[in-house]
Amino acid sequence: MTGALQRRLSAMVGKMAGTRVLVVGDSMLDHYLVGSVNRISPEAPVPVMRVASEHLMLGGAGNVATNILRMGGRPYLISVSGEDDNAQNLDMLIRHEQVEATIIRSEDRPTTIKTRVIAQNQQMLRIDKEHDAAVDATVVDLLMESLEEMLPQHEVVVLSDYGKGVINARFLERFRALCKAQPTPPKVLVDPKIKNFPLYQHAYCITPNTSEARQASGMLEFSSRHDILMGGLAIFKKCKCEHLLITLGPNGMALFEAPGQVVHIPTVAKRVYDVTGAGDTVIAVLALALAGGVGLRDAAVLANYAAGVVVGEVGAAACSPDELRKAIALLPEPEVQPWLSEEPLRT
Q1: Which pLDDT value is given to residue 347?
Q2: Number of domains present in the structure of the chain
Q3: Rounded Cα distance, 338 and 288, in Å
Q4: Known catalytic residue: 227?
Q5: Rounded to an integer, what distance in angstroms lies between the CA atom of residue 89 and that of residue 92?
Q6: N or C: at which end does the chain have fewer Cβ atoms within 10 angstroms?
Q7: Phi then psi dihedrals of residue 53, to 5 deg
Q8: Carbohydrate kinase PfkB domain location, by residue (predicted)?
Q9: Which domain does 302 fall in, by range?
Q10: CA atoms of 158 and 287, how far apart (whole Å)
C-alpha cells in the first residue's frame, strides 16, 4: 500500500474515536462450548466432545455495540430480553463491557441464546433457544420512549435485525415517523433479515450478505457480476434505500452508491476461521466511520479491513483501532473496481 493512502485511511480510523452511534435491535447471548473430539459415542454414531472451556458473549445487536465500543466509539443500545436467568446474564455482560443500554424485559419471550459447539477450531453444532414473534404493542411503546430520548443525540442509527421480533412493522412505522420529525434526520443503517426487507423503506444503507440479497431480490443465482447487479437493482426498487452494501464473503463487497453506480471491494482477509459476527463488525465500523464524517466508499473500505481482521478469529470477535491500523499497514490494498459507472440502470 502506498504511504499516502495508508496515512489517509489511518487518519480516518482516528475520526471514529468518541463518535456516538445508536444501536436498536435483537440482542442475544452467544454461548460457546469449546473442546476436543477423540472418539465416537457408543450410544449413536456421533462424535463425543470433551469440553475444555465455556463462555458467554454479547451477540446480535449487543455484538454490534461491542464492536463500536472496541473501535473507540460510544454506542447506546436499545433492545429487548426475556424475564429469565439469561436476561440477568445479558445485563451482566452489558455492564461488564460498559455499554450504555436500555434493555426492556418482556415476560412473553425467552432471552435469545445461541450455543455453538466448537472442536479443533471448527464449529460442529449450533443450538438456538429463541422466540421470533413480533414484540407486543406495550414493548413497542417502551422502545419508542427510549428512542424519543436518545435519537436527538445521534446522527447515525443501526437497526440490527436478527428476526427475533424487535424490528417489526409496527415498530418501523413509528420509528420512521420519529426520524422524519428530527430537525436533522439520522442516517439509518440496516443489517437486514429476509422477512422484513419490504419494511426497510428509505434507509440510508442496507447491508445484506449474499444469501440475504439473493432471497430479497428473488434471484435464482447470485454468483456472477450480472446477478449481483440485477439483484441490487431489485432491492433498490423494493426498499427505496439510498445505498446498498452487499457483503460477498470471500469475494469482498459490492457497494451500490446508487442504482447505476457500483464498485467492487475485494476482501483483504488472509485466513477465515469463523464468520460469526462478521456482519456486525462491518455495520459497526461503517456506522462509526460515517458518524465521524468519513465518506461512504472510504467507510466501506475500512469496514472491509475490519471484517478481514475478525474472520481470522474464532467466535464473534471485535476489531480495535490498533488492529485496524495494523491491517491497513500490512494487508494488501483492495483494488476497488467500478462494476457499473456509465449507463445508469433505470429504476
Answers
A1: 40
A2: 1
A3: 25
A4: no
A5: 5
A6: C
A7: -155, 160
A8: 20-322
A9: 3-29+57-110+131-340
A10: 7
Spatial CB neighbours of 3, under 8 Å, sequence gap ≥ 6: none
Residue 42 lies in a domain: no
Tell me the pLDDT band of 273, cut-offs 50, 70 and 90: very low
Helices (H), the chain: 3-15, 61-70, 85-97, 137-150, 169-180, 210-217, 225-239, 278-291, 296-310, 321-330
State mean pLDDT over 121-129. 93
pLDDT in tens, 249-268: 888 899 999 988 999 999 88
Annotated catalytic residue within 85, 280, 298, 322: 280
Count of all residues that appear for the chain in the document = 347
Using pLDDT thresholds of 50, 70 and 90, give the confidence band for residue 2.
low
Do the Cβ atoms of 334 and 266 come closer than 8 Å? yes
What are the beta bridge partners of residue 190?
A: 159, 206
Q: Which residue has the higher pLDDT, 36 or 331?
A: 36
Integer Cα distance of 323 and 326 in angstroms: 5
Strands 100-105 and 20-25: unpaired
Q: Which tops the pLDDT comparison, 274 or 58? A: 58
Residue 120 lies in a domain: no
Instruction: Decide if 156 contacts 293 (C-beta within 8 A).
Output: no
User: What pLDDT, in 10s, does the model give residues 76-122?
Assistant: 999 999 999 999 999 999 999 999 999 999 999 999 999 999 999 88
Domain membership of residue 115 (yes or no) is: no
Residue 40 lies in a domain: no
Q: What CATH number has the domain bearing residue 331?
A: 3.40.1190.20
- Tracing cell 430480553 back to the chain, one arrives at 81
Place of cell 460442529: 124
